[in-house]
UniProtKB/TrEMBL annotation:
Source species: Nonomuraea salmonea
Family: Belongs to the CdaR family.
Domain CdaR GGDEF-like: 155-265
Protein name listed in UniProt: PucR family transcriptional regulator
PANTHER family the record matches: CARBOHYDRATE DIACID REGULATOR (PTHR33744), PUCR FAMILY TRANSCRIPTIONAL REGULATOR (PTHR33744:SF7)
Source superkingdom: Bacteria
Database matches in Pfam families: GGDEF_2, HTH_30
Limits of the PucR C-terminal helix-turn-helix domain: 311-369
InterPro entries (alphabetical): CdaR-like_regulators (IPR051448), CdaR_GGDEF (IPR041522), PucR_C-HTH_dom (IPR025736), PucR_C-HTH_sf (IPR042070)
Gene3D superfamilies: PucR C-terminal helix-turn-helix domain
């Protein structure tokens, strides 16, 4: 509720105009300081926390429930109602509520109406959270799951005592990150709605969820949900990381840390596919713990110049395939003579010797580290590693 009230107050301050926010049933959820024009309906709505049936009927007849953008509604003196600007708060096809401005003394300028419409995604996210306010399923669950993923053991006790998770069951954490889109309020709301729809289908797994800044978190009792089911629930393409199961809920933070790292690796290494389990990440499990400053010194110049990208791709494929010239030529569809030329150029430019096992290991690990840091972005999917 605090986030919602803050958003309402900030918007009213920007527009220099009082406002009132209702949910889709036209119950008052939040309102700013009322320092402008006031009518009987606004006053009664604040006092009663809802709009009376006659006014609801009048406003709905004006089209507020069907509107997809701001609209101006006429006044009704017989009801004590001044003209208004209504900004429906929607996400996708769902109506979450209404943002109201009194459109008198003076009328609301169109640029201010447009700015109010731009605030809808943020209000939709806050209003959506508020609409979940039913027992532990809302704020208390949010706080408990947040604490749980921070490693607070008391949070697990709260969830178990509230019946949100079984005491004797192991827990698995999965993390979904948008593949391409930058996170914003609208995207976070869409991801959370996807998680909630999935939770309804997974009630036997005692699911819990949390929406973070750039990723969604799903906790389930027992083994993880099927990756296909999780991907299908998400409204945008995502990559999914899966942590290893832990024997009790109090250890969920360990599975979460692994799932988050697995999702990060999957986002940066497209060849791993859409889903990666921490237990199957191989060398990337170790590399996520290392600083990317410790690269092979000979690769620095190659990484800094885009013209050398084909050489780096050739080198990585060659090392991925255990130094087999035959397999590398076939994988890259490259003549053997051209392959040897490229490898020789790598040796010259990187001041290295590919016949030296230690050098090959250092180069191989450095390429993988450069992938994770974003300094090396090959055009082709990697071979097996």
């Amino acid at each position: 509720m605090a986030d919602l009230q803050r958003a309402v107050d900030e918007l009213a301050a920007r527009l220099e105009r009082p406002l009132l926010l209702e949910d889709r049933h036209q119950r008052v959820v939040a309102y700013s300081e009322q320092n402008g024009a006031m009518d009987d309906v606004r006053r009664d709505s604040i006092l009663r926390r809802h709009t009376v049936p006659e006014v609801r009927q009048w406003l709905r007849a004006a089209g507020i429930t069907e509107a997809t953008g701001p609209l101006r509604t006429p006044g009704a003196p017989q009801l004590g109602l001044l003209p208004r600007v209504c900004v429906p708060v929607r996400h996708a096809d769902g109506l979450l509520g209404f943002l109201w401005f009194i459109d008198a003394e003076p009328p609301m300028p169109q640029p201010a109406v447009a700015e109010a419409a731009r605030a809808v995604p943020g209000l939709a996210l806050a209003l959506f959270h508020e609409s979940l306010a039913s027992g532990l399923a809302s704020q208390r669950e949010l706080e408990a799951v947040t604490g749980l993923l921070l490693g607070e053991r008391d949070a697990a006790r709260q969830l178990i005592e509230a019946g949100a998770f079984p005491q004797a069951q192991p827990v698995t954490v999965q993390v979904a990150r948008p593949r391409t889109a930058e996170p914003d309020d609208a995207l976070r709301l869409a991801l959370e709605q996807g998680l909630l729809a999935l939770r309804r289908r997974l009630s036997g797994h005692h699911p819990l969820h949390l929406m973070r800044y750039d990723h969604a978190v799903l906790l389930t009792a027992g083994p993880p949900v099927s990756a296909d089911e999780l991907h299908a629930a998400m409204p945008v393409p995502v990559v999914v990381g899966v942590g290893r199961p832990r024997p009790e809920l109090a250890l969920a933070a360990e599975s979460y840390r692994e799932a988050r790292h697995a999702a990060e690796v999957t986002a940066r290494v497209p060849g791993l596919g859409r889903t990666a389990e921490w237990a199957r990440l191989g060398v990337y499990r170790m590399l996520t713990q290392l600083p990317d400053r410790e690269l092979h010194p000979g690769l620095e110049g190659l990484l800094a110049d885009a013209q050398y990208l084909p050489l780096l791709e050739t080198l990585e494929t060659y090392l991925d395939l255990a130094g087999s010239a035959v397999a590398t030529s076939k994988a890259l569809r490259l003549h053997r003579t051209s392959l040897y030329y490229r490898l020789q150029r790598v040796e010259e430019l990187a001041r290295t010797d590919l016949k030296d096992g230690g050098e090959r290991l250092a180069l191989h690990l450095s390429l993988k580290l450069a992938r994770l840091s974003g300094r090396y972005l090959p055009r082709e999917p990697p071979g097996p590693s």
